[in-house]
Write a structure and sequence with these properties.
Helices cover 31% and strands 29% of the residues. It is of the alpha+beta class. It folds into four domains: 92 residues, Rossmann fold (3-Layer(aba) Sandwich); 55 residues, 2-Layer Sandwich (Dna Ligase, domain 1); 123 residues, ATP-grasp fold, B domain (D-amino Acid Aminotransferase, Chain A, domain 1, 2-Layer Sandwich), CATH 3.30.470; 99 residues, Phosphoribosylglycinamide synthetase, C-terminal domain (Glycinamide Ribonucleotide Synthetase, Chain A, domain 4), CATH 3.90.600.10. A hairpin with a 2-residue loop joins strand 15 and strand 16. Helix 1 runs parallel beside helix 10 and helix 7 runs antiparallel to helix 8. Bound molecules: adenosine monophosphate and glycine. Glycine binds next to loops.
């Protein structure tokens, strides 16, 4: 079969790398792709906001399945439009993608269906929002309701900071995404990410991972899209995964079906594992980046039958096998990221990094230019390695990464530290 992947990040490179191993594949395309994806797929220069153009490409190239990587096209209804054109697509329609597109929407579902999450209020009126902050006190969490590229969350330690955050969001810091705010109880515990795949009525568990959002070592500095990830997350024991399926994922999928907005595709739960048990922080309607890279490294089954079964609405015959080994990905980013950085700097010796056993380098912001590899984005490479545990995977990942020559890039040197601290007790 012919498959088109939409996106251009490390997540999409990992998906293409995995799909390229499938026995079912004839041709693989990626739009727009990047300098690494072009090794495993034909990159096509399509504008991913141009749904009509994507549909025309699918018809011209006999595409049997479209896999949508990022949230923006999902929230924009790309899957709705593909389905209307009779093209099978993996990922939720726009209405169920609201689980990521609106934090308030998700919180209301949690409240109605008893899904454990932080206590909250939703406000479109600034005075009412401030009154709620004063009533609840600090620490407290203030969030823009809509998509804000992971930046719309302010963890306020004081009431003054929280009131400032309310002003900041209502002043338009996040544009339309901040027309409404969600104000939440500050939860404490250990964070983990858990992934499931849904078919509209049921869900199958995948595995857990842990991201590193802050740019600096020891989780300091501004937040980024993610500087590294590993899988599994130690807090996500088998019993905890089962609890998350029973208390969070399954009730959500059932609620969405009941509301007439059946959820199919990947469901990514950001969790806080508190003393009272797992609580939902937020949902994403797609794979995480760089979490997808470690998930794909650990998935032993062919992914294509799973993607098709989800898109067709019947996961009942699917099983998924995982590698017991751990996987860890370190992000190499351009100096200055997440602030200003320069583009078109040259990267060398990626092949030397990939020569090591169990190591794969997934590309994000790269472009091939006349035999040279150039960095064209903030997050640029994901050096991903397997190991018998996180300690070993980390060692291999950094050993490989140190073979890459790129004076204009940097990475965190402590990806996996929480797990490694535990492993070394
Ligand atoms: P989100 O974009 O909603 O995942 O939030 C970004 C980050 O803020 C999360 O990964 C958590 O570290 C933190 N966070 C969000 N909501 C809460 C909460 N209610 N309590 C504590 N931390 C939170
Ligand atoms: N790495 C976090 C995310 O993809 O949302």
């Amino acid at each position: 079969m012919n498959i088109l992947v939409i996106g251009s990040g490390g997540r999409e490179h990992a998906l293409c790398w995995k799909i390229a191993q499938s026995q079912l594949l004839t041709s693989l395309y990626c739009a727009p792709g990047n300098g690494g994806i072009s090794d495993v797929a034909s990159c096509v220069d399509l504008d991913i906001t141009d749904h009509i153009g994507i549909i025309a490409f699918c018809n011209d190239h006999g595409i049997n399945l479209v896999v949508v990587g990022p949230e923006a096209p999902l929230v924009a209804g790309l899957v709705n439009d593909l389905s209307a054109a009779n093209i099978l697509a993996f990922g939720p329609n726009a209405e169920p993608a609201m689980l990521e597109g609106s934090k308030g929407f998700t919180k209301d579902i949690c409240a109605e269906y008893n899904i454990p999450t932080a206590a909250y209020g939703r406000f479109s009126d600034i005075d009412k929002a401030k009154a709620y902050v004063r009533e609840q006190g600090a620490p407290i969490v203030v969030k823009a309701d809509g998509l804000a590229a992971g930046k719309g969350v302010i963890l306020a330690q004081t009431e003054t900071e929280a009131l400032g955050a309310v002003d900041f969001i209502f002043d338009g810091a996040f544009g339309e995404a901040g027309a409404e705010v969600v104000i939440e109880e500050f939860m404490t515990g250990e964070e983990a990410s858990f992934f499931a795949i849904a078919d509209g009525t049921t869900a199958l568990p995948l595995i857990s991972a842990q991201d590193h959002k802050a740019v600096g070592e020891g989780d300091t500095g501004p937040n980024t899209g993610g500087m590294g990830a590993y899988s599994p997350a130690a807090v996500m024991t088998e019993a905890m995964c089962a609890r998350v399926m029973k208390e969070i994922i399954n009730p959500t999928v059932a609620a969405m079906a009941k509301m007439g907005k059946p959820y199919s595709g990947l469901l990514f739960a950001g969790l806080m594992i508190t003393d009272e048990g797992p609580k939902l922080i937020e949902y994403n309607c797609r794979f995480g980046d760089p979490e997808c890279q470690v998930l794909m490294m650990r998935m032993k089954s062919d992914i294509v039958p799973l993607l098709i079964a989800s898109a067709k609405g019947d996961l009942s015959k699917q099983t998924i096998l995982w590698d017991e080994k751990a996987a860890l990905a370190v992000v190499l980013a351009a100096n200055g990221y997440p602030g200003r950085y320069s583009k078109n700097t040259e990267i060398q010796n990626v092949a030397a990094a990939e020569a090591a056993r169990g190591v794969t380098v997934f590309h994000a912001g790269t472009r091939q230019d006349d035999g040279k590899l150039l960095a064209i984005g903030g997050r640029v490479l994901n050096v991903t390695a397997r190991g018998k545990n996180v300690t070993e995977a980390q060692r291999s990942a950094y050993a490989a990464l140190d073979k890459i020559t790129w004076p204009d890039g940097f990475c965190r040197r402590d990806i996996g530290w929480r797990a490694i601290e535990r492993e070394n007790i």
